[in-house]
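Predict structure. Chain length: 247.
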Amino acid sequence: MELILLFFVSLIASFIFALGGVGAAIVLIPLLVSFFGVPLNIAKPVGLFYNTVSLAGASVHNFKNKRLDIKIGIPIIISSFIFAAIGAYLSKFIPTRIILYIFIAFLLFSSYKFISHRKKDGEKHREDAPFLKLSLIGMIAGLLSGLLGVGGGGIISPLMLMMGYSPKKITTITAFVVPFSSFSGFITYWSMGDVRWKVLIVAASGGILGATLGTHVMHKHLDQKTVRIILGIILLLLAIKMTLKAI
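Prediction complete.
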């Protein structure tokens, strides 16, 4: 019965967060710990794998519908994949409280930027792919992803907005990048022996279905402004969640 409940919780969470192209591991992990009694060291790799498969499914959907700009995502993928493994390894030695406070401040600032941002008349969203800047975004996102056991979508999205990319492109690129950094972190945790496969498979199954549906709704039925506001609200919810974890 608990596994059936976990499936539907996973499905709903991934659907909501896929509207913003962000992995729902940051919600799933505390739910696993608080309501399902899963130890935190077991919940983290479940959350990372959940991000991997759910957003990979969303990216396949985006690729089939020719919405995915791969050249923008590649630099972020390479650097985030490397630094997520480093972050997961360092998590054994570094206290996360200070990192949490910095992350919370960043999420609050990012939420404000998304909600308050107004596109100026005649302003065009950028389409280029500056390798070094995008790689730096991936480094920061990957490191925090591995340290905290969450996807780096909450970092990638606002930084790409500040660079001038459109909200829908941001959600598509984030959904493309996060599976790689999440999988890198998952592999590191798996190598340390912290995986419970039954819980992982059930959560991932719900995540794939929910994220695919959420991505379809976002692209077919929501405009750029709505997507931007959804991203801002999601980041605000993430900040609240992380604050509750920190206190």
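Summary: The chain has ten helices and no strands.
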